[in-house]
Design brief:
The chain is mainly alpha-helical. The protein contains 27 helices and eight strands. The protein has a four-stranded parallel β-sheet, with helices on both faces. The chain has a four-stranded parallel β-sheet with strand order 6-5-7-8, with helices on both faces. Helix 18 crosses helix 26. The longest helix has about 35 residues. It starts with 11 loop residues before the first helix and ends in a 7-residue tail after the last helix. The structure holds iron/sulfur cluster (2 copies). The site of one iron/sulfur cluster has 14 residues, from helix 10 and helix 11. One iron/sulfur cluster binds next to helix 13 and helix 14.
Length: about 700
């Protein structure tokens, strides 16, 4: 019956020695893991011990089955990782199967399962797994040493790990080949790789083959032990840490930032030292596998700014390892390398010493890093946490923000306009727009509350979008009203900038106003207002149905409640649509704005290379709209250039922040004659059959 003698050609003393020695690398492994867990435990409490089923499903589908790792745009890297993972895990399971047969079932139960068809299938599976592993390792070497993509940093650690995997696999095949050279099993072809390798060995005597087998057997175990000892002190720890990280991932909406609880009583604010992170955030730092995917769509990395989300994680992770006395290895050489080196010392300050303030202020909070990260690392909450400390504790922030904070505090908007001017745009409308307070006083019902937002209220360019949306609502016969002078900033920019005090004040004020009135749903043209109302207001008792104007307009067109003039040439030709980060990535609204653009008469929707969840930020989120862009090249110009490359003459926007950034970007690249940026509401309003009747004096501003 097909089988083989386990530990063939190895003396019992050798076998005992190997088992005795095993305690050393296992000790290293356990110690390394324990040190890391100890470091996570210095973090703040955070409840991630819920929804076990969801967590388990995510860990299996996203991590073990590689759901987030093998992606359409990362097929090479994803498959490479999948090959290595499947090969490695299968061989590991194979090793355990042999141990169970040799150490448990045979000696204790006198039962052998390692024979017959099981044995043949096992041999076939192990040989295939080895091929997968070698293929993955060769792909990785090729990518790291030949292709060298910009976002990939290669350190000695990466090469050592790959070398370990390759050597271990070759040693495994060689063991089989040397044994087959002596034993000539009739079923040898099931071990097809070892069988092929045994052919050139046929000239060697059995004595030589057995001697070589013994040398290879011991060196295979020594290599395994060295790898095991190295495991917890290198990137190879990531199978444990990333699986744990995916399991304990944050299950709240991506667009929701956690508030500082009991702000008034808090003694310190935000994150200034390792102990200020939550335990889950500290675990994030150890889960990074250095893949660089977070860099691919990061606007700061792609415009040569100091912030690189991968390096931010590695720098703080290295600092944590240093503080915990864990050797973390160096993180690469050359221009594209993380700046932290082991041994720089744990006594540095986190902000300013490990992470620069420039890195923290450059982030647009676009979420591209988090969306891309295969192991669910959350960069934005870490960055905002450190910004909170800078703003609230150290009063250190870019000068431009002083006015923004003052305006928010005094005027409830980032701009220096009095609240009385919030509804000034309604005076330019052909039909009156109702004010919520007046409608309530007159006991009139209001179905839809149009939340205009600060940019839509005060900024003259964005007022055109506001008026266009109001005209659409009027044309569709929707019973709506605005808050007018009572409207306040939602708190989104303040929260992302790190001024949690102002953010909570604004949010509280807005919720109190909204809760005074009765309406069915809120519509807004601003994805930042949309995200705050939808995802953050439930934290403070504000529970509303809120839709973005792209969703409502798409529905109105589909229901034929508004009609577009087939002769309209408002968007004839190529139109490219830009996904705002807070609408697309954060809230997964991708199709509605596209269906609106596609419905425009004569419009040919053409996509930019980076679109939908791979969209490239306009540069205005995270409070960046109010800050100077002094480092690297300009993000808005990079995106406008990408829009121009499509040959489109219209850049369709659906966010007032994007609108402002793109108007500036088009000017910056001198494309005023070739490209116009217009909100989808403007395009629809201009193409509506009723547009002429509702024309306002500002439409042609
Ligand atoms: S949120 Fe955006 S800008 Fe900030 S680090 Fe991530 S990808 Fe870069
Ligand atoms: S943070 Fe995530 S995406 Fe970025 S390098 Fe680490 S594992 Fe890769």
């Amino acid at each position: 019956m097909p089988t083989r003698q386990i530990e063939w050609n190895v003396h019992t003393i050798g076998q005992i020695a190997v088992y005795a020695l095993l305690i050393i690398p296992v000790g290293f492994l356990v110690y390394g893991l324990a040190r890391r867990v100890r470091m996570w435990r210095i973090g703040q409490p955070e409840d991630r011990f819920n929804a076990w089923g969801t967590r388990l499903r995510g860990a299996i589908t996203q991590s073990i089955l590689h759901g987030r790792i093998v992606r359409r745009r990362n097929r090479y890297g994803g498959l490479m990782h999948l090959f290595i993972f499947v090969g490695f895990v299968t061989l590991l399971i194979g090793t355990f199967i042999v141990m169970v047969e040799d150490d448990i079932t045979v000696p204790i139960f006198h039962y052998s399962f390692y024979r017959g068809n099981f044995y043949l299938g096992y041999k076939l599976a192990m040989n295939l797994a080895g091929i997968l592993l070698i293929a993955g390792v060769l792909m990785a070497f090729y990518r790291r040493l030949v292709v060298r993509p910009k976002q990939l940093q290669t350190s000695a650690d990466d090469l050592v790990i790959l070398a370990f995997l390759a050597v271990l696999t070759v040693q495994g095949y060689a063991l089989g080949a040397l044994r087959l050279g002596v034993q000539h099993d009739p079923w040898a072809k099931w071990s097809f790789v070892s069988y092929a390798l045994a052919i050139p060995l046929r000239g060697l005597s059995d004595g030589w083959l057995m001697a070589l087998h013994q040398v290879n057997w011991f060196s295979h175990f020594l290599t395994t032990f060295a790898f095991l000892a190295y495991f917890a002190y290198s990137k190879m720890i990531h199978p444990f840490t990333s699986l744990a990280n995916v399991f304990f991932r944050r299950l709240r909406p991506m667009g929701e930032l956690t508030p500082i609880e009991n702000l008034e009583e808090a003694e310190s604010f935000g994150i200034a030292k390792l102990e200020d992170f939550s335990w889950a955030q500290l675990m994030n730092l150890d889960a990074c596998m250095h893949c660089g995917r977070c860099l691919e769509y990061c606007p700061t990395f792609n415009t040569d700014k100091p912030l690189r989300p991968r390096d931010l994680i590695l720098e703080i992770g290295g600092y944590m390892a240093d503080s915990g006395g864990i050797f973390s290895g160096e993180l690469g050489e050359g221009e594209n390398s993380a700046r932290f080196r082991w041994g720089e010392g744990p006594e540095r300050e986190l902000i300013g010493g490990v992470v620069s303030t420039e890195e923290l202020w450059d982030c647009t909070t676009c979420g591209a890093c988090m969306e891309q990260c295969p192991v669910f690392i959350e960069h934005v909450p870490l960055i905002v946490g450190m910004r909170r400390n800078l703003v609230l504790e150290q009063s250190e922030f870019p000068d431009e923000l002083t006015n923004v904070f003052n305006n928010l505090e005094r005027l409830s908007s980032p701009y220096q306009f009095p609240p009385s001017q919030r509804d000034a745009w309604t005076k330019k409308m052909a039909q009156p727009v109702r004010i919520m307070g007046e409608a309530a006083a007159a006991e009139e019902e209001v179905e839809v509350l149009f939340f205009v937002g600060c940019l839509g209220s005060f900024d003259s360019r964005n007022q055109r979008t506001t008026m266009a949306l109001a005209r659409i609502l009027q044309a569709a016969g929707i019973n709506f009203a605005i808050l007018g002078k009572e409207e306040t900033c939602t708190g989104d920019p303040a929260r992302r900038i790190g001024n949690e005090y102002l953010a909570q004040m604004m949010a509280q004020q807005t919720v109190e106003t909204l809760n005074q009135y009765s309406f069915k749903k809120i519509v807004t043209a601003c994805p930042h207002c949309f995200n705050a109302i939808k995802n953050e207001y439930p934290q403070i008792g504000g529970n509303y149905e809120v839709v973005h104007h792209s969703e409502l307009i798409s529905q109105l067109i589909a229901e034929k409640r508004i009609t577009l003039d087939p002769a309209s040439d408002v968007a004839s030709g190529k139109v490219t649509y830009h996904d705002p980060c807070y609408l697309g990535r954060y809230n997964k609204v991708y199709d509605d704005p596209r269906s609106v653009v596609s419905a425009l008469p004569g419009a040919e929707l053409t996509e930019m290379g980076r679109n939908r969840n791979h969209s490239f930020c306009c540069g205005g989120g995270g409070g960046r709209l109010f800050m100077e862009e002094t480092r690297g090249s300009r993000i808005n110009q990079a995106r406008v250039t990408e829009a121009l490359e499509t040959g489109a003459t219209t850049l369709a926007a659906s966010c007032p922040f994007c609108m402002t950034m793109f108007e500036d970007g088009i000017n910056g690249v001198g494309a005023n004659e070739t490209l116009q940026v217009r909100d989808i509401a403007e395009l629809v309003a201009a193409a509506m059959v009723t547009a002429t009747a509702n024309e306002t004096e500002t439409e042609t501003d």
